[in-house]
Amino acid sequence: MDEENAKKVMSEVELVELYDSFTEFNDYCAFLCDAVSCLFADAMESEPDAHTVMGLKRHCSDLKARAETLETMLHAFYQQSYTSSPVAPIT
To answer: Which of 14, 13, 34, 9 is nearest to 75 (CA)?
Structure first.
């Protein structure tokens, strides 16, 4: 396999990894949305306890970190794709 084909295979592997990371992130977001809606429904009846609030804060922090990681991965993949085959910018 020559160098160009090796780069193509590597970018395909990276794309699959990015897709897997995104689907995991998407599932995590869906779970968090369901959990928050339940918390708000319960909060209408009683105040949430400190552990619930702490858990929600932890999930939100993790969600932000995962979003930043995905953004970094997307940016790196974009840069790699752009340098291998430049695309004219959309005007």
So the answer is: 14
Residue 86 or residue 23, greater confidence: 23
Phi, psi of 89 (to 5 degrees): -65, 150
DSSP for 65-76, written as a single string:
HHHHHHHHHHHH
Q: Read off the pLDDT of residues 57-85 as tens digits, 9 standing for 90 and up.
A: 888 888 899 889 888 888 887 777 767 66
Q: Which two tokens stand for residue 76?
A: 């790196």
Rounded to the nearest 10 degrees, the angle between the axes of helix 3-43 and helix 50-84 is 160
80 near 11, Cβ under 8 Å?
yes
**Cα separation of 37 and 67, whole Å?**
21
